[in-house]
Write a structure and sequence with these properties.
Elements: E1 7-12, H1 16-27, E2 32-38, H2 41-47, E3 59-63, H3 73-83, E4 88-93, H4 98-107, E5 111-114, H5 122-130, E6 135-137, H6 138-143, E7 157-159, H7 170-180, H8 186-193, H9 197-211, H10 216-229
Parallel strand pairs: 1-2, 1-3, 3-4, 4-5, 5-6, 6-7
Helix pairs in contact: 3-4, 7-9, 7-10, 8-9
Length: 230
């Protein structure tokens, strides 16, 4: 997926502050755009087909538990599939319950992460799900270890829940490495990768924000430290 084509995300959660936090977080990522928020599964269903611009979302970030409303997260998944078969669903929950995870995945979710892990890496998890990968974090995989026979997936991508800088896409990381480690200029990188200088500068800016760096030297240090940690 080209970064110029952002992933359209619908956030479904009954906690106002979680919705606001996720909307703010995803707005900062070059790959994602929140096109709607819903407080209940029923509200989410009513929004499908009516979201402005380019139609339905590409990915639904779906909480599993609700205080209000008749449907739970796993109960609404088949309804979403019926209405929008092509949409990807990334489930998440605060409650660490293997039955919640299994119910979501058996209902048709394309991945599952814990809410407290859905911070720095959530955009990357959304991106991977959008690309067609089945994603769970390591702690989710450990929780349901031995019960995977109940799942429809033979292979799951284990998404690290403790790795820093998860939101560097391959292209953004390629650009910032050429810039910081390779010492190339924006013009040289643009020529090397056959993209515009403005695109290069946008990738560098995005990388700086993700790495928490304010200069080339600082970004270089963060990249080297990152390699050491991995």
């Amino acid at each position: 997926m080209a970064l110029s084509s952002k992933i359209r995300v619908l956030v479904v959660d009954d906690d106002y502050y979680v919705r606001e936090a996720l909307t703010t977080l995803l707005a900062k990522d070059v790959r994602t755009r929140v096109v709607g928020v819903a407080a209940t599964p029923e509200e989410a269903l009513s929004m499908l087909g009516g979201i402005g611009g380019g139609g339905n979302p590409d990915v639904i970030l779906l909480d599993m538990r609700y205080e209000e409303g008749e449907l739970s997260g796993h109960e609404v998944i088949p309804e979403i599939r019926r209405m929008v078969p092509e949409v990807k669903i990334l489930a998440f929950s605060m409650l660490r319950d293997d039955e919640v995870v299994l119910a979501a995945i058996e209902a048709g979710a394309d991945g599952f992460v814990w809410k407290n892990e859905a911070t720095d890496g959530i955009a990357s998890a959304i991106w991977r799900v959008y690309e067609g990968r089945f994603v769970v974090t390591r702690s989710v995989a450990q929780l349901i270890l031995g019960k995977m026979g109940r799942l429809r997936h033979e292979v799951a991508e284990i998404f690290p829940d403790d790795r820093k800088y998860l939101d560097l896409t391959e292209r953004v990381e390629q650009v910032v490495r050429l810039f910081c480690i390779g010492g190339m200029s924006a013009a040289e990188i643009a020529e090397e990768l056959c993209i515009s200088e403005n695109t290069v500068r946008g990738h560098i800016k995005a990388a700086y924000e993700i790495l928490g760096a304010t200069s080339r030297a600082e970004a270089f240090q963060r990249l080297i430290a990152r390699e050491d940690e991995w």
